Amino acid sequence: MNLKQELQDLNDKLDKSRRKLAAAEQRGDRAVILQFKQEVNAVTKRINSIKSQQTRDLGKTGQSVRDMPFKRALTKAEQADMGKLKKSVKGLVVVHPMTALGREMRIKDVTGFAPVAF
User: What's the rounded Cα separation, in Å, for the pair 104 and 118?
Assistant: First the structure.
């Protein structure tokens, strides 16, 4: 299972546990309250762990892209015909500023990274 799916499943489980905890608190059932508080803490801890793992993976990807020897912003014409550009430049990686990788790299324009000049 990939990290995104696991994170989504854990968020669903956390939401479900919080709703059950609220219902148990309304009833005043101490044993169930304790059980769900422990479950909420465990799931929250796992969610934080997965988020930090995602951040590390994104940082590694960003660093490998930044280490490419050539980069430049793409023109509108190149963006319009991305397939032709990718076929002509081997190893081209295009990073959009609105993606997670683009935000992490703090780029402002659609930028191409490649091992050779293009």
Answer: 24
Is the separation of the CB atoms in 6 and 54 below 8 Å?
Answer: no
Share of the chain above pLDDT 90, in %: 75
Within a 13 Å sphere around the CA of 79, how many CA atoms are in the beta-carbon half? 10
- 68-118, what's its fold? Ribosomal Protein S8; Chain: A, domain 1 (3.30.1370)
Q: How far apart are CA 70 and CA 51, in angstroms?
A: 31
Measured in residues, the chain has a length of 118
Helix %, strand %, coil % of the chain (to 5): 70, 10, 25
pTM, full prediction: 0.71
Each residue's pLDDT tens digit, 20-65: 999 999 998 899 999 999 999 999 999 999 999 999 999 999 999 9
DSSP annotation of 13: H
Q: Give the DSSP H/E element, type plus range, for residue 54.
A: helix 30-66
